[in-house]
Amino acid sequence: MILKPNLRGQVLPMPVVLISTVSKEGIRNAAPWGCIMPILRPLDEIAIASWLKRDTLENIRDTGEFVVNVPTMDMKEAVDICAKSFPPETDEFEEAGLLPHPSAKVKPPGIAGCVAWMECELAEEILREKYSLIVGRVVHLEGNDDFFDEKGGMDFERARPMSMIVGPDGVCYTHPARGGL
Ligand SMILES: Cc1cc2nc3c(=O)[nH]c(=O)nc-3n(C[C@H](O)[C@H](O)[C@H](O)COP(=O)(O)O)c2cc1C
Fold it and tell me: Closest ligand 1 atom, CA of 53?
């Protein structure tokens, strides 16, 4: 079957993360993000794609810092609230009932209860006509002790990190399961 090119999000499942930032006035922001990828194993950079009209993008430009929080499937309601368009002066942690998880190296707090927290510094912005690609350097990575063993292995079937498949009828949330023959 030939598919429309914009259905690529169905054949390439994506993670769902919550990006937390603070504005230059110190207001906390959180927004769901799907277009995120690690840049080449085992380097420590990631890239996120952003539409130009995003408080998240403004905050990253202004402060040079952000946290990539990996929510569990149980956090879907908070993800939906953070997807709404709030004015920049709204504290989105308060709106979504999110509690902060202290960050070690950057100012924006992480989000409590997540599977993992990736603290990032802005390395480069690649600005295009309609969107921007942000390259971030991971300066601190922490996994939630509830889901990780001593070797740093994640029990992902228990953690259920949010992921998504975007099909013709919209977003379907999913999570990784163990494969194998
Ligand atoms: C599951 C999901 C994934 C999303 N992924 C992206 C993305 O990759 N890039 C983007 O610019 N917006 C994305 N959005 C939209 C933003 O989360 C949404 O516009 C949000 O209100 C932006 O908040 P902000 O203005 O506080 O940054 C996504 C929304 C959802 C629900």
Answer: 25
